[in-house]
From TrEMBL:
Sequence ranges assigned to domain AMP-dependent synthetase/ligase in this UniProt record: 44-231
UniProt lineage: Bacteria, Bacillati, Actinomycetota, Actinomycetes, Propionibacteriales
Pfam families registered for this protein in UniProt: AMP-binding, AMP-binding_C
Ranges of residues in domain AMP-binding enzyme C-terminal: 283-352
Keyword entries, A-Z: Ligase
Top-rank lineage group of the source organism: Bacteria
Protein name according to UniProt: AMP-dependent synthetase and ligase
GO molecular function terms listed in the Swiss-Prot or TrEMBL record: acid-thiol ligase activity
Signal peptide: none
Amino acid sequence: MSTLRLVPGTPDAVLSALAAVLDGSGTPFAPLPDDPAAAARARQAIAPDEPLEEDCAVVLTTSGSTGEPKGVLLSREALIASATATHDRLGGAGQWLLPMKPYFVGGLQILTRSILAGTTPVLAGDDFVTAAAAMTGARRYTAMVPTQLSRYLDTATDALRSFDAIVLGGAPMGPQLKARAADAGVTAIPAYGMTETGSGCVYAGLPLAGTELALDDGRILIKGPTLFSGYRLQPALTKEVLQDGWFRTQDRGRFTDGRLEVIGRLDDVVISGGVNVTLPAVQARLVQHPGVRDAAVLGVPDPEWGSRVVAFVVGEVEPAELRDFVAEALPRTWAPREVVQLAELPMLASGKVDRQRLLDGVR
């Protein structure tokens, strides 16, 4: 078995190690987060001193937004398949701007696409406008999370318009953000995927070439060449989620007019006072309020209700008004029992909401 090499999670270090494994000259590697605490958690998931499983080029750690991080084994073939299918969907290879951390799959795959396209990626750094202006490719792409797009729409609309496509991943693209991007003339494409699928594998509800989708009692199943090889040193978990070539995700979905619509996670339904509450539906309703810029909704263990629905809201709106607003479109029993107003939602380096930090603040 191969040994696993740890590399710093900087763009230059990851780009060099990635180019070597893609051309067959390098050894499997794992990029470490730049935050010391996150790096320590990643080391536990990666277990670099243990023998490495076969069919692995890169080991990435999941962000741990809903639990302990896991080491995800990605093969050279999966990385290439994802990058190739993405370029095919977008209309051809091009130059990419990197506004994301390369030790997460979204950032790593920007570098993979750049290597395969023979182009030099541009680093966004702290000045997105200047970085976008430095792009020289005939076709220009970038990828980011919805929170980034929302902020850039406030400050860098012209720069956003300069891209042929902006791929959005890591979180759902809400209707308000979709409308803002369209009104600004920005080509933003919502993507669904995760580390286990080699980054986004469904664009605007339609699977990339080679990817198959199915539903099992609402659970989203994915098959295709971009899938991961397994979880690092967790054969039982790997066997549980990879069955007959299908990856059994933890997400619920449905098909609408032939397109996949992601409804939420399987654990996003909580029982509060004997009533089943679908948390993503409450969150989607909250962000429709003109005074709400962003929101997250979680179920918090409660001795009286079993779970109480708590809304974390960015915006200055009276809690009673928000509860009434939710009740206008959804059952009143779904309205949040508690509203926590924040200046902004805490985010992980991956761009996902730090759900654990929110929970820790209200328990």
